[in-house]
Amino acid sequence: MDLPLERDEGGYAYIAWRMQLGEMPYLDWFDQKPPGIYAVYGLALGVADHAVVAIRALAAVFSAVSSIALFHLVRALLGVGAGLVAALLLAFLSADPMIHGSIANTELFMLPGIIVATLLVLRAIDSAKVPIVTSLAAGVAIGIAIAFKQVAALNVPFFLLAFGLRVRGPDRWRRLAVFTTWMGLGVALVWGPILGWLQLRGALAAAIDATFLHNLSYAGALALSRRLELLIAYGTPMLPSQGIAWALAVLGLVGLARSRNRFAALFLAGWALVSAAGVSASGHYFPHYFQQLLPVIAALAAAAVWGGCGKVEPPRWRVAAVGCLALAPLLLTAMLFWTLSSEAAIRRIYPHNAFATMPAIASEIESITEADDTVFLFGSEPEVLFYARRASATRYIYLFPLFGPFPDARERQQGVIAEVTSAQPLVMVWLPNRMFFQAGAPQLLTNWFQRFSARGYRVHAFRVGKEGGGIELVRVPRGANPDTVLQGRTPTATIFIRNDADRKIRGVDLPDQPG
Predict the structure, then answer these.
(1) What is the pLDDT at residue 6?
(2) What percent of the chain has pLDDT over 70?
């Protein structure tokens, strides 16, 4: 729970902190996620002094709710024994560090709503008449899930299709209409206040731009061949810990399909398809995206472990043996992570990102600024801003929307230039992501930053690799030549301070980290 924040967590924490000061997401700070994630991060920031641990602890509570809800869902489909196995599998699968289970991403907060909604829809299907309260509650649950991540909405067509195909009788269409109406009202009970709040605060147009219009461009930016490359690149490292459970899920689906009552197979297969669509929506296939598939994977794997629909209890030795086979690699992976420091663990989870160094960079920024000073971060590491408790000089705390293959990327860069020029931040940080320099990305902001920093700023410190391995922060004394201080080394980050700054600087050190 004490792992350094990664960039998504840092962004959510930063926005939640700024909301506590009266600012608005989307209007004051650009982000692509719905507002539910800021609400739970704000709750975590308000209940504990150690913000990072509080955020992760709240994610663990949501994960526990997911496992409990999945138990009830699978019990209704396959029996008590399979429900217990599914709940246990989900707890281990969703906590797997290789699927970013130890990170408080939106998927962990979205899953309880999806699972509860699926359970309520199943109960509505099995009812002799449409239960109004159950249908309404299903809408509320899926509405809450959508408030954490938009792809949860893909479950709604699945719910309607499952209800329409399962329900029989002369009043079939009327019952479907009633179910749809009440579930839609449940969604409205969640999203009506959200949209009204955004409208009253003048942030609705900005929210639509960030969470809908930009996401459409984001989802359509990758070619099919590139999507397949990313699927292989991100999916392969998960196989050692997750692979056995996923293989059991395939066997479970085959076994259910061969049973006399195929409803469980069809229902879980449909849920798997919409979950896979949610994972694939953007085409980037980051490991935590696969969290959306884990509940149905756990349910199907439980069917394989338990051996069907639960009418005949299987031998206990088989349940124990197959269950341990699925859990063993997950437990081994967890135990290996327990032996690592928090900095080493975050490097293992994100091998191509230096999240472990961000708290120290933030401390350095905090040491040379005052609380009301602004910072411009040429990068996508808002956790630096959150750790330092310093406001961004631009509403773009991530610069990814400015450098992707988006038709409005150049326009957004011009907006950032205007904001930073107006703010005249005391500190600027050059911390670019390699994705900024992909073919076709406009470099208007890059070229402007180099001119702007050279004209009004001086180098305060570099982040560079140490001889023999590791990373260190090298400060540049005022009046010294930065190139001389570097001694031929290539910096991976540069902290600039405005020329007119005259502050007493206290030192901080970076943790050792492989270069």
Answers:
(1) 95
(2) 96
